[in-house]
Amino acid sequence: MSSNSTHASGFAAQIKPAFFAGPDHLTVRQSDQVALFLRLGLGSVFVVGGWWKLQRAIDASRASDLVEKYTASNGYINDFFQSYLFSGNWLSAWGFLTALSAFELVAGAALVAGFLVRPLAIVFGLMMWSFVAALPVATVPGQDTSASTFFTPAMIVQIRDIGLSGMCFTLAVLGSGSWSLDERLTGRGAGAQEADWSSLGLLLRLSVAIAFLAGGFFYGLDHVKSWSGMPLLLILVGLMLASGHGVRIAAASAFLILVVYCVGKISFDKTPWDNLNAIKREFAFLAASLVLIRYAGGAGFRVSDLLSAPREVFFGKLRN
Fold this sequence. Notes:
Blueprint: H1 3-21, E1 25-26, H2 28-57, H3 63-71, H4 79-86, H5 93-113, H6 117-134, H7 154-157, H8 159-174, H9 181-186, E2 195-196, H10 197-217, H11 231-243, H12 247-265, H13 272-278, H14 280-295, H15 303-308, H16 310-315
Antiparallel strand pairs: 1-2
C-alpha cells in the first residue's frame, strides 16, 4: 500500500468518528451559534404562549374561559396547587394566570433578544417541571375513568416540557449566544472557551429523544403527544438520538417529522396566534434538531462506549 493511500485511510479513520459523534468541545463561536438557535427556539415558545394566554386574561369576555381551561378537572392546575395558591384572598386564579402570562411574554422576548439569558434559562428550566407537578392526573387502578381528566402519568403527558427543560439548562451553560443584548450592554454572555459538547450534546439529544420515545411507545394513549402516526418511526428516531449513533440522520428525520406535524396543525379556521400556540413547543424542538444536525450529539454515553469500555462509562477514568 502506498504512503498516500495509507495517509488517506488514516485521515478517513480520524474523520469518520468525528463526523458521526461531532466535536468533543465547542469553540466560543460554535457555542454562540448553538446558544443563538436554542434561545430563539425557546424564546419563541414563551412569547407565543405568553401572549396567547395574556390576550385572553385581559379580555373580559374570554378571561373566565381561560381560568376554566386551567382550573377544570382536565385543566393544568391540580387541586393540590389550587388549594396551595388560591386558598387565601391574596391571589386569584385569574391574577396568577395573568402574571404568569405576562412573565412568559416579557421573559420570552428577553430570551429572543439575548437579555439575561442565563438566569432566565434556569428559571424556565425549573418552571417546566412545575407544569409537570401541577397536572391533574388519575392513575389509581380500578378508578372510575368517566371523569374528564388525565389518565396518563404527568411525566408522559408533559414530556415535551421535560425536553424543553433540558434545552433550557443547555442554554444556561452555553451563555447568551451571538447577537445578544447581554454582549452589547454588558460585554458579557460568553460561554466557556471550550464548551464540553460531550456532556451538553448528550443533554440536548436526550431532551429531543425522550419526546420521540414517549410519543412512540405510548402512541394512541390518553393525552400522549405523538408527532407522527407511525410510532415505530418515532421510536427509531428516539433510539438513534439516545444511543448517540447516527445522530445527524436522526436529527434530520426529527426535523422533517416536526415540519410535517406543524404544517398539519395549521388551520385556516383559526387565528394566526391560535395556530402558533398549537405548535409553539415545536419551535424549540426544531431549533434543537438543527443544532444536532450541525454538531451531532457528542460522544457522551454512546452505546458503543457502553460495550467497549463499560467501566470507564459507569465509573469514570482511572485516577493517577
